[in-house]
Amino acid sequence: MARPVTVGLDGSPESLAAAGWAGHEALLRDASLRLVNAWPGPDQPALTPGRETAWRYWAEQALSSALAELGADHADMEITTAQIPGYPAPVLLAEAERAQLLVVGSRSIGPVAGFFLGSVGVELAARAVTPVALVRADRPDARHGDVVVGVEPRGPCEDVLEFAFDAAARRGAALRSVHAGRVPAIRGSAPWVVDVGLSDAREEAAHALEEVLAPWRDNFPDVRVFAEIASDSPARRLVGAAAGTALLVVGRAPRRSSLGPRLGPVAQAVAHHAACPVAVVPER
Fold it and tell me: How far apart are CA 160 and CA 280, in angstroms?
């Protein structure tokens, strides 16, 4: 039996949007859906018995309301709920080990400041052993748009490409593969030297990108693939490409740091600013 799509639910508009998105994703994957609430919350380090009872009741209501709504939308889908004692991050990290996809909500803090993912979302995206999808409540649902994937051909990208091609295939969508990077300045007295250098760099990048895409094109022949090479900040290019798309997919390279697991700068930027659901895929 396929592993479930699991969503962290706390009753907030963001988590309810994540649950709705996760239900559609589970349908695409022919998987069950699991709704998980962790308690006590991060702002309740010590609950008195009365407050604990109130918190438990509130959490049960959030789960039952979401279950009723999702059950009406997906009558034939297996949907389970779990209310698990503990703080959200460790509870959901443990749940991720038994899921094929973990889905959580993220929230906006205004058009100038951009989006705030929150410490729990950051920790999950940085540490989970399974892909993590981050879903907002304040953006139009473009489920029928393209899938965009950020690719760095010189690094590990097999897992992120497998996820992105599979997501596009299940949606019947096109896949836009974006590779962006700053081309080093070429110093010289003649302008044509710069032009030739830039052209060579683009050709080399296009060749490297096509090499990593080629086997996945063969594995998913029905997916239309568009490759894009840009001399730009990878994060800025991907955030721009996310507008109106169904899903943006980025990889998370294995990291060993004294500060513990963390998102790289590109994944961090798109997780905070992209105006569509973002899937962060751990590379093995």
Answer: 8
What is the pTM assigned to this prediction?
0.86
* More confident: 117 or 16: 16
Torsion of CA 221, 223, 228, 233, to 10 degrees: -120
CA distances from 177 to 215, 251, 259, 269, 282 (A): 14, 13, 31, 18, 18
Tokens of 54: 């109130």
pLDDT of residue 109: 43
* CA 79 – CA 191 distance, rounded (Å): 63
The CATH number of domain 139-284, selected from 3.40.50.12370, 3.40.50.300, 3.40.50.620, 3.40.640.10? 3.40.50.12370
| pLDDT of 102 strictly over 60 | yes
Amino acid at 76: D
- Round to whole Å and give the CA distance between 249 and 146: 11
**Residue 275: which pLDDT band, with cuts at 50, 70 and 90?**
confident
* Burial class of residue 117 in the structure, from the number of CB atoms within 10 Å of its CB (0-12 exposed, 13-18 middle, 19+ buried): buried
CB neighbour list of residue 25: distance below 8 Å, 6 or more residues apart? 5, 101, 103, 133
How many Cα atoms are found within 13 Å in the side-chain-facing hemisphere of 71? 11
> Radius of gyration over alpha carbons of the chain, in Å?
20
pLDDT confidence tier of residue 144, bands split at 50, 70 and 90? confident
Residue in 207, 219, 282, 214 with CA at minimum distance from that of residue 250: 282
Alpha carbon distance 240, 279 (integer Å): 16
CB 161 within 8 Å of CB 215: no
- Domain 1-138 sits in CATH 1.10.10.10: no
Query: Tell me: the pLDDT tens digits for 46-65?
Result: 555 666 666 677 777 788 88
